[in-house]
Amino acid sequence: MTTFAADTLAPGFDTGQFRSALAQFATGVTIVMTRTPDGALHGLTVNSFNSVSLEPPLVLWGLAGKARSLPAFSCASHYIVNVLAAHQLELALRFARGPGDRFAALDYAESPAGLPILPGVAAWFECRARSRYPEGDHVIFVGQVEHCHFNPSKPLGFHGGKFVVI
Ligand SMILES: Cc1cc2nc3c(=O)[nH]c(=O)nc-3n(C[C@H](O)[C@H](O)[C@H](O)COP(=O)(O)O)c2cc1C
Start and end of every Flavin reductase like domain (predicted)? Predict the structure, then answer.
């Protein structure tokens, strides 16, 4: 891994401009979930999901260092990435909101590792946790995909700080 010197910002760097420029990068929307050894489910809405490698099959996503679910994902052996379809905005909002039981009355099937597969998702990827890289205010999770499935659908997107249907 190559790292660069300091956390010092370039002179005149505009953080607001940075955020706005990033927001122009249109993404899909996912919900990443895991289960702790006590059986409790944890999950949140994530749009930092991306592909890394085909052989081996690797994906990544970023989790904020302040996220309540960080301890759960940090010790998870497996997690699942559910890729939301256009009609699943309610789920995206539910898993982005603050405290409250996001899994209450949630309908789901189980993946081979016993993780929730949301009905109607465009795709899901069940991952074995492979590596983690703390960087800045986030932790990057790299997972090796062990099982996946897709169901071609209109995706839910996120662009300019808003949910969009692509
Ligand atoms: C469209 C969208 C994408 C998001 N992507 C991420 C992400 O990639 N990583 C992240 O840590 N939080 C992301 N969030 C914010 C989390 O979903 C949100 O802060 C959530 O409440 C965190 O849950 P937790 O504190 O229970 O872990 C996103 C929110 C939205 C609405």
Answer: 22-165
Distances (CA, A) of 143 to 61, 79, 80, 138: 9, 8, 9, 16
Q: Choose one of 19, 34, 41, 44 to mutate for the ligand 1 pocket test, by most ligand atoms within 8 angstroms of C-beta.
A: 44
Q: How many distinct structural domains can be found in the chain?
A: 1
pLDDT tens per residue, range 44-87: 999 999 999 999 999 999 999 999 999 999 999 999 999 999 99
Distance 65 CA to ligand 1 centre (A): 11
Half-sphere exposure of 95 (CA within 13 A, CB side): 25
Does the beta carbon of 44 lie inside 6 Å of ligand 1? yes
Domain that holds residue 68: 17-165
